[in-house]
Amino acid sequence: MVAMTAAVGARPARAAPSAARLRAWGRGAVGAVILVAIILQAGAAPFVRGLAAVSVPSVVAALLLTAAATAAAAWRWRILAGRLGLALTWPQAVSAYYRSQFLNTVLPGGVVGDVHRAVSHGRSVSQVAQASRAVVAERTAGQVVQIGLAVMVLVALGMSAYAPAVGIVLLAVVVACAGVVVAAAVSTRARDVVHRELDAVRTAFGTVGTVAKVVVASLVVVAGHVATFVVACLAVGVDAPPQRLAAVALIAVLAASIPFNIGGWGPREGAAAWAFTSAGLGAATGLAASTAFGVLAMIAVAPGAAVAAASAFHRRRATRAAAVEESS
């Protein structure tokens, strides 16, 4: 999300998507390297097993779970956008969120869809910077709740073996925050930017009721993704207690939020292989489950493709109408 903030925060609206795409392709390349390294190490068999495990019942379950998670995420976005003074209807929020998830799934980096969502909404209300803040706040809140939930669940289950994975994510957050603090300390301009963004955060999360709603929405989102991963585990035939499935699913879903991936693939597979090995289920099984999850996730956000196509059609039609009007 730091990269996304830089992409759409203080840049001109036209320049922001281009800069974000370049960074996304760079992060996607890292994800591709990770994925290739895993394939070379483990072979193609686990991935084939995961693909073959996808069935109609698992697809239906993924579609329903993703619909619930998307509705909750759209609600979270609407809450924070409204706090920042931005109009956003339910149909707009849900359709834009589906499109965002679809773009994040098929494009490298995992954030291009969010950048597009921010810029698109910002242009529709003539406030790109404020709309970008709403999207960054919404995604960041979701990740904070996800990390907190993972820590609490793993501690409650006594699964200390997974502590290093969560620790790495927390370390990355601390390093990012330290970078912001250092930049603010040495640069007056950076300090002004930090103060401005902190004011926006205080406005967005300014009431206890808002924070409670955002937390509830985020819990539903995480539960939907974790449940979808559990569906993938069951599809590939994983035989393990529910608490163990929940633990490995949390680790894999948490790793999927790392923005160094190619369409969601890369760190997720590495984390799944490690988590399944630590749980005594085998790395190959983890890779198979992660593969099934990746396929189910892509199918589940397919409605976003229709939204993206409709948006492109409307843009082309508006461009043609404008050209005809200018020529007449």
From TrEMBL:
Cellular localization per UniProt: Cell membrane
Q: Does the keyword Transmembrane helix apply?
A: yes
Q: Which UniProt keywords apply?
A: Cell membrane, Membrane, Transmembrane, Transmembrane helix
Q: How does it sit in the membrane?
A: Multi-pass membrane protein
InterPro entries cross-referenced by the UniProt entry: L-PG_synthase/AglD
Primary location recorded for the protein, binned into one broad class: membrane
Sequence intervals crossing the membrane: 25-44, 51-75, 144-162, 169-190, 210-238, 245-266, 286-310
Q: Does the keyword Membrane apply?
A: yes
Source organism's superkingdom? Bacteria
User: Per its record, how is this protein called by name?
Assistant: Lysylphosphatidylglycerol synthase transmembrane domain-containing protein
- According to its UniProt entry, this protein's organism is Microbacterium deminutum
